[in-house]
Protein 1
Amino acid sequence: MRSSPDRYRFGEFILSVRQRQLFRGGRPLPLIPRYFDLLVLLIERRPTAVSRTEIFDRVWADVVVSDGALSQAIRTLRRALGDDSREPVFIRTVSRHGYSFLFTAVVEESDEAPLHESLPAPPAPVPEANLDEIDVLVDRLLSDADTDEDRRDAAEQLHALGTATAVARVIARPRPARGLALLRDTRWDVEGAHEVPLLGQPDGLAAAWQLIRLRVRDAFILAERRAIAAALGAAFAGALAGLVGGLVLMRSPGSEAPFTIAPVLGLLGAISGAVGAAGIAAGVGAAEAIARSRRSAAIIGGATLGGLVIGAVAQVAVRWTLRGLFGLELGQIGGPIEGLILGAAAGVGYAATTRRPGGGGMAAPAGSARARTVIVVGVSTAIAGLILSLTGHPMVGGLINEIAQASSGSQMTLTPLDNLYDEPSFGGGTQLLLAMFESGLFGAGFAGGFTRRPRH
C-alpha cells in the first residue's frame, strides 16, 4: 500500500489528510470522521477493489456495526461527491466484494499548495427556493412506495439542507411518526445535523416507538452474535472454575472425591456461565444497540434486567429439575437477586471502560483497551459475588454444596475445602473466596466474549 500524502486533488475536490477535511472548490464539505476515513482508504487503494471485510477492519476497527452502516457511508460519500451509483465517476460498487475508487486523475500534493485562489463565503441559510426540494424529499421520506434505503437517503439529504426546516415540514404532514423517527435515527450519520425532538411533537410517542423498532431491527443480528460470544466466553470461564475447583477439592485433606469430580464440576460451571452470560449479554447488547444517548444508564439497566430475567428462569428450572429427577426440595436456590446484582456489576464495568463509538454501533475495544474491560468487569463481578455471599445468597459453588449435602451418599460436597483454612463445615471464609473466584472469572469470561469483534 502506498504511503498517504498530505492531500489528494481530484476533479474539483481536495481531500486533505492532515486537516481531515474534504473541500470542493475551496469550500469545506462536512463528513463524519469514519466516512472521511473510508474515502481516504478507497483513494489510497485506487483502483483496487477494497473488500467489505477490509473496510470494516480498517474504518470500524473499534466498533461493531451492521452491513447497512457501510452502505449508508457510501451513499453519503456519493452524495458529497455528486456521484451516481448507476453511472459512477468516483466510487464503484464491486458486486459481492466491496468498493473501488474509479477516478484516475488523482494528484498527490503537499498541504502547502493553495487550496483555492479565494474561499467562497460560508453557505447561507436554506432559501425559499429550496423548500420545493425539501418537500420532494419529505414526500420520499413518508412514501410507502419507496424502499427503506431510499427513505434513509431522503432523511440524510434533509439534514444536509437543514434539520429544523425538515422537521417543520414533516410535522406539517399527516402521520409524521415514521418520518420523525428516520430523521432522529439518521442525525447521527450526517455531520452538522441538529437535534430532532420527539416529545411534544405531533405523533411523538408513535415516532419514539418507530425509532425503537428501527434500531432493534438493525441491531438484532449484532446483539445476537455478541450474546453468543459472551455465552461461550463465560462457559469457558465457568468450565475453568469448575475444573480448578474439582482439582483443589480432590487434593483437599480428608476428601474422598473421585477424579471424575473435576469434569463434572467443569460441566456444571460451563452451563451456569453460558446461561447467565447469555441473559446479561442480551440485555447489554439490546441497550447499547438501541440507545444513542444516555448510553451508560441504558447499558447498566439492560444488564440488570437481563440478569434478573435469566436468574428467575434459571431458578425455576433448577427447582423443577431437582424436584422431578431427584426429589430434592432446597429452601435457598439463587436466581433473580443473584442475576440482578451480577448483571448490574457487569454493566457498570462494561459501561465504565467503553464509550459510544462515533456514528453509532456497539463498542469493540481491542488490545490493551479490551484487556482493561475484561479486568474491570471481572473485578466488578467479583465484588458483586462478595456482596451476595455476605448477604447469604449462594453462588453456583454454594448451591452445589447444598445439593450434595441434601443428597445421600453424594461425593460433591465442598466441605473438604474448609480443611485448607481450618474451618468447620462449609465456612464463611471458604464461601467468600469461592464466590469471589467464580463470579470474577464469570465476569472476565463474559467481557472477553462480549467484546470479541465478529467477522463480517
Note: Strands lie at 7-10, 13-16, 21-24, 27-29, 50-51, 63-64, 91-94, 98-101, 106-109, 362-363.
Protein 2
Amino acid sequence: MNAYRDQYATVFNGGEKVVLLAISADTPEALHSWASDSGYPFRFLSDPGGKVGQAYGAFNATYSLDNRNLFVVGSDGKIAYRAIPFREVDPQAYKELEAAIDGLAAGR
C-alpha cells in the first residue's frame, strides 16, 4: 500500500477523476489505525465477511483474507483492467496500471 501512496500523484492522477478504494477483509478499526498511521490519501473499505472479495474472485476462504488482486472499473461500472494477482514489487505493474487509468481518463 505504501507504493500506492508514494505513486498516488503519478499513477492515480492525484485523485483527479480517479477514486482509489482499497478493500480488505480486515476490521474497520484495524484499517483505520493502519491508514491513519501511514497517511494514505485514499479510502480503505472493510469487507470482514469477504462478500466483495468473493464477488470479484479475490477472497481466500482458507485464510479469510483477500488476495492481492487489482481491478480498474470504468465509470460505466465495467471492469476495464485486471491484475490477478497484482505484482506489487514489479515496477512494470505500476506502469501497466497507470496506462489503464490514463486510457479510461482519455475515453479509450
Note: The mean pLDDT is 88.
Protein 3
Amino acid sequence: MDNIEQVNSAFQEALNTLGSEVTSIWLPIQLAIILVIGLVATLAGKLIRSRIKASDLSPGWPGFLRLLVRLVLENIGTIIFILLLTVTQTVMTQATWPSHSYLLRVAISLATAWVAIAVVAGLIRNPLAHRLVALFAWTIAALSILGLLRPTMAALDSFGLAIGGLRVTPLLVIKTSVLMVLTLWLANATSDFAERRLQRAVDLTPSIQVLTGKIIRLLLITFAILIALSTAGIDFTALAFFSGAVGLGLGFGLQKVVSNLVSGIILLADKSIKPGDIISVGEHFGRVGIMGARYTSVDTRDGREYLIPNEDFITQRVANWTYSSDFVRLSTTFNTTYDSNPRKAQEAAVAAALSIDRVVAKPAPACMLTAFGPTSIGFELLFWIKDPSLGIANVKSDVLMALWDTLEKEGVKIPRPGPSRVIYEMAAREDEPDPPKDDTDLPSPGAPKSPFG
C-alpha cells in the first residue's frame, strides 16, 4: 500500500506542476511553439523524403547500414523537430527563467526517445516483436521522463502470488516477458546468420548443414531462456514444480512431438534423407525440401507440398531415388507385328531413346525381346536419366513419341486392332463351352449322366 501511495503522490505532484503551468502565460506560448515547429518539421520531412531516396544515399553499402539509413530518413521529420525545438528551448532558457520552457524540455525528451526507439526497433524484422519492443520501450521512456518510473515499478512489485518457492508479481511477469522476447529474437537472428554461413560451406553435405544449424538454434534458444530467467531474478530451484509438470506432459500429450523431433535428428545424422533428394514414401513422390524439427516437406510436380511427420520416414518404407547416385533407370514396353524385323525394332528403340536430351548415353539404353504373343512380339526398352527431379512421366512420354516416329521411319509396324485380332478373339470364344440358357438346362444333382454325352 505504501508503494501505491507513492505512485499517487507522484501523480499528484505532476498534476500540481502542470496546474501551476496552466495558470501561467508561458503554457500556451510553449504549446504554440511546439505546434508551429511540429508543422514546419513535418513539411520539411516530407520534402526531404520526396527529394532523397535511401537507395541513393547508400549504394553498395551492407544491408544493415542501408536499413539504418532508411530508418533515419523515415524519421527525419522528428529529427528536425528535435533540432528546432532544442534551439528554441536554449534561446528561451537564456532569455527567461528555465521554468518557462519546462514543457519544451519534456517534448524534446519524448521526441528523442521516440526516434531512438523507432530506429532500434526498426532493426527487428518480426512485426510482432517490433511492436512489443517499441511499445515497452516507449512506455519506459515516458515514465522515466515524467519521473514516474520508480514509483510504478515499486507498485507493480508490491503484490504477487506465491507458487512453490517462487513469488510471481506483475513486475516479474513483465520483466521476464520482455527479456524473453529480446533474448529469443537475438537467438533466432544469430542462428539464422549461422545457418546462412553453413549453407555457403561447400565442404559440408546438406544433411550436415541442416543438422548443425538445428543444433546451434536449439543451444542458442536454451541459453536465451536461461539468461532471461536468471536476469529476471528467478531461482531455478523454484522451477522444480514446473519441470515435473512438463515431464508429465511429455509423457502423456507430447509423445508424437518428441518422437518426430528425435526422428528428425536421426534422419539428419544418418544421411538417409537430405534436402534435394527424390523420394517416395507411401503415396507421395517428390523432392525433399525443408527438414524441420517436426516434419519434412516433400515438393511434388503438381505444385503441392506435403508436410510429412519425421516419424513416418523411420517407421515406413522409403524409396530414395538419389540416395547414392542421381541415375534412375526407367522402362517402357511396346509390341511389333510378326512381319517386322525384331532386330531392326531393337535398334530403332535404342536410337529413339538416345534422341531425347534427358536420356544419358552411359549407361546405354537397352531393348530386350520379352515375349512372343498371340498376335505380336513384346519388347521392353530400358534407359537411364540423371535428373529425376525434373519429372518421370514427361521423359517417358518423350521417349514413346520418339519411338513412334523412329519405328514408323524404319518400317517397323505396331499391331493395331483389326480383322485378325477380331478373328482370333472369336476363335477363342468358340473354344469355350456355351453357358446354360436357363435352369432347365442344368442337370439335377442326383440325375445319372447320359451314356451318349
Note: Confidence is low (pLDDT under 50) at residues 420-429, 435-453.
